[in-house]
């Protein structure tokens, strides 16, 4: 494949996946201009990471749910409940910070198992089960907190979402450690991409032209190092960013290189075909929701750490932000299509838009209108692609 053919392939055949990255670059550039560069200032980039990390974590689980042909409307309430349980143990009963974290994860897993049972083994649609869960777990949050907020958490707990790793390698006005970690990440990605390319060539599969492949790696390296440079000039490497990066790498591997991941895509793409192929649909659906509950527990711990307390109304509308991130990132409304990386880019688009509009002083009502229109256009684009693909056949 020549470079010209590769570019044409990116902008036509793979418009669904490549278009989101182009849109992200355009949106970042637009808001950078509209905010006079404040959007890309070191301190603001750090704030974006801290403020939207829990939405991105929820989006990782949500995209797997959506790929499987389901939806989860309860994650915001689960974030509130897990944070509340953690607060009761750490703030009210004086337990160590890690006990609160473990409790949040366990509660998340139990919630996921509860909902997975009703969806997978009883056969109630996920929409109904999680709608009931949204009400049930919000009510339990009020009961756990006795209708009051609890704060503050000890400083050790706050570091989960607000701590930084810096100064290990020194630096004059910037943190060298952050740059070293970013360079290692770029090198690791380049090595993985090269191995994948060589593997495809061995099996005589088509790959992009070598110049285009190198150009893509260079572009990714420039973006990552520029991002790290800004973080290094602020407060260093956020702990929550390390947690998020580990989750992204782990779940990208799970969805693309494991039997479970292939079964999730199979169920969402064609349920009858998956059943006839021997996929254990009930078990896969059960574990999809257990996983979503676990990640909601992670997000609940991080959000409570970030907000330095637990509130009965915490996590309100988080489920809609997570769902929007997945659909903007290329997931299909009918299941079977989507990627973790796409959901992350979709979440970052929402984060950049929200942060940019806040910096511009745009009213909250207008921000909601803009987000709604962006989500609507993303789904319309999905439907347009399906109709075009159907016509092509």
UniProtKB/TrEMBL annotation:
**Which keywords does this Swiss-Prot/TrEMBL entry list?**
Cell inner membrane, Cell membrane, Membrane, Sugar transport, Transmembrane, Transmembrane helix, Transport
Q: Could you tell me where this protein is found in the cell?
A: Cell membrane
List residues traversing the bilayer.
20-42, 48-66, 73-91, 97-114, 119-137, 176-194, 206-229, 235-254, 284-303
GO CC annotations, alphabetized? plasma membrane
Q: What Pfam families does this protein map onto?
A: BPD_transp_2
Instruction: Extract the InterPro entries matched here.
Output: ABC_transp_permease
Topology relative to the membrane: Multi-pass membrane protein
What GO annotations for molecular function exist for this entry?
transmembrane transporter activity
Q: What CDD domains does the entry give?
A: TM_PBP1_transp_AraH_like
Q: What is its main location?
A: membrane
Name the job this protein performs. Answer: Part of the binding-protein-dependent transport system for D-xylose. Probably responsible for the translocation of the substrate across the membrane.
Do you know which NCBIfam families this protein is assigned to? GguB
This protein is called what?
Answer: Xylose transport system permease protein XylH
Organism whose genome encodes this protein = Cellulomonas triticagri
